Recover the amino acids of this structure.
């Protein structure tokens, strides 16, 4: 049964919209959320077309470490809350897929789709070893299993195949580009509709623009996702270089906590209340109004779902 997620829009239709957003010429900027509150606020930012989740932000917000230390049940429950709080497509950072085998990953992806997601991020960074990567062929099998799970549910999700070659600085520097190309091509052949190279090309790269242009060329028609970082060229230049998706990762979560930490430190150390002025950027009435709008939308969506699919 397809669930109505926005009025009478089904999850399959929302998934197709998310697919289409990867084919536009503009860069799809994907803010990454970590809870219902961040979902509500970022959904209402003008121009935001879709959302992703951040595994690091979610884990930290719940007081556990990153790297699949949060249980799948808790992750699925939170994803269900997030997807109910927005009418935008939501892609979930599922790390390596929460499973030892491809079949396990298929079960995990099934649960995430049933929670309302229309995209998943699957990566080759080994959660058990911060310096290691999964074999490329192993992640490719997991990607294929995810695609098949989505096919069985008739929800054409976007699987984002991620390599952590640059993120973990794996292998000799002179070999990283070629290995990144090899892995991302393999992930695309396995069914990934988008591929992700966080940390690429790195702030020390001699020519970032040339490196990005070359990677886009090597990937052909497969959309490239980069991780937003101040060291990268502006979004307009990334678009011209061929980048099609830009994720914020845990940056927004860390930015928020950094502001909270610094404000509290300023208040305690100086006794001045000026450190709280930044909160005026989101007043109490504005916050309450944003939550009220989200609650109204959620109620409308739930009513439409019952009307379209009576039980």
């Amino acid at each position: 049964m397809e669930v109505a997620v926005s009025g009478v829009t089904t999850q399959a239709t929302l998934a197709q919209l998310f697919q289409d957003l990867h084919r536009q010429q503009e860069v799809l900027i994907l803010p990454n959320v970590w809870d219902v509150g961040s979902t509500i606020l970022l959904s209402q930012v003008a121009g935001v077309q879709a959302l992703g989740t951040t595994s690091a932000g979610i884990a930290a917000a719940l007081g556990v470490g990153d790297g699949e230390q949060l249980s799948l049940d808790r992750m699925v429950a939170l994803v269900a809350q997030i997807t109910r709080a927005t009418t935008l497509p939501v892609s979930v950072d599922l790390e390596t897929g929460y499973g030892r085998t491809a079949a396990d990953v298929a079960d995990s992806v099934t649960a995430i789709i049933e929670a309302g997601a229309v995209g998943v991020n699957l990566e080759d960074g080994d959660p058990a070893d911060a310096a290691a990567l999964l074999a490329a062929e192993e992640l490719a099998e997991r990607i294929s299993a995810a695609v098949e799970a989505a096919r069985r549910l008739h929800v054409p999700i976007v699987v984002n195949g991620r390599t952590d070659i640059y993120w973990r600085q794996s292998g000799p520097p002179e070999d990283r580009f070629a290995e990144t190309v090899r892995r991302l091509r393999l992930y695309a052949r396995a069914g990934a509709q988008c591929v992700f190279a966080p940390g690429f090309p790195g702030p020390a790269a001699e020519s970032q623009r040339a490196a990005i242009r070359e990677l886009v060329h090597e990937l052909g028609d497969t959309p490239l996702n980069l991780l937003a970082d101040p060291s990268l060229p502006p979004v307009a230049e990334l678009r011209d270089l061929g980048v099609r998706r830009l994720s914020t990762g845990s940056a927004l979560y860390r930015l928020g906590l950094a502001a909270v930490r610094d404000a509290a430190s300023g208040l305690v150390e100086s006794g001045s209340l000026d450190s709280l002025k930044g909160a005026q950027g989101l007043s109490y009435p504005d916050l309450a109004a944003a939550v009220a709008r989200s609650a109204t939308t959620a109620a409308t969506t739930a009513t439409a779902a019952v009307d379209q699919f009576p039980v």
About this structure: The CA atoms of residues 82 and 305 lie 17 Å apart. The chain has two domains: 8-251, 262-302. Confidence is low (pLDDT under 50) at residues 1-8, 302-311. The radius of gyration is 20 Å.
